[in-house]
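// run 5 | inverse folding | seed 20
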C-alpha cells in the first residue's frame, strides 16, 4: 500500500511539472520523468532488472512510434475515402487501408515476439495491464489539471458565455 501511495504522490508531482511545462525542453524533461516512473513501476511489479526495464521501455517507444506513423497514414487514407467514396480509385484506397491494418497486426505480433525474448508470458501480461492502468491514470490526472487550470483562469469568453447562459435561464437577453 505504501508503494502505491508513493507512486501516486510521485505521479501527482510529475503532473504538476507538466502544468508548468511551457516549452519543448520542459516537455521533454516531463516525458523523461514519466518514463522514469513507468520504468520504476515495471521494475518493482515485474521484478526485472534495470537492463530489461530499459529494453522494455525502448521496445515500447519504438512500437509506439511505428503505430503512430501507421495510424497517421491510415487516418489520411480514411479521410480520402470519406471525401469521395465513389472515386475511381476507391478500390486502391481500400486495398491501402487493408494493407495498413495488416501492417498494424504484424507490428503487434513482432512487438510481442520481441518481448518474449526477455520476459515471461506472465510478465508480458502484467506489463500490458500496468501500462494500460498507468496511461489511464495519466490521462485522468492531465484532464483534472486541465479542468482546474481552465477554472482558475479568468477568461473573458468563458465569463461572457456564463453571463449569457445565466441571462438565458432568466429569460432575458443581454
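// decoded
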Amino acid at each position: 500500500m505504501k508503494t502505491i501511495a508513493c507512486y501516486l504522490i510521485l505521479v501527482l508531482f510529475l503532473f504538476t511539472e507538466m502544468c508548468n511545462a511551457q516549452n519543448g525542453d520542459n516537455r521533454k524533461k516531463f516525458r523523461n520523468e514519466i518514463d522514469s516512473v513507468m520504468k520504476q513501476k515495471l521494475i518493482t511489479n515485474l521484478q526485472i532488472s534495470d537492463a530489461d526495464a530499459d529494453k522494455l521501455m525502448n521496445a515500447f517507444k519504438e512500437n509506439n512510434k511505428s503505430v503512430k506513423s501507421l495510424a497517421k497514414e491510415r487516418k489520411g487514407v480514411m479521410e480520402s475515402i470519406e471525401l469521395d467514396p465513389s472515386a475511381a480509385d476507391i478500390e486502391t484506397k481500400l486495398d491501402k487501408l487493408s494493407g495498413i491494418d495488416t501492417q498494424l497486426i504484424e507490428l503487434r505480433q513482432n512487438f510481442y515476439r520481441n518481448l518474449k525474448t526477455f520476459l515471461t508470458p506472465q510478465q508480458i501480461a502484467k506489463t500490458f495491464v500496468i501500462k494500460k492502468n498507468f496511461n489511464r491514470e495519466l490521462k485522468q490526472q492531465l484532464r483534472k489539471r486541465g479542468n482546474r487550470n481552465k477554472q482558475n483562469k479568468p477568461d473573458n469568453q468563458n465569463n461572457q458565455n456564463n453571463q449569457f447562459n445565466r441571462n438565458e435561464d432568466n429569460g432575458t437577453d443581454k
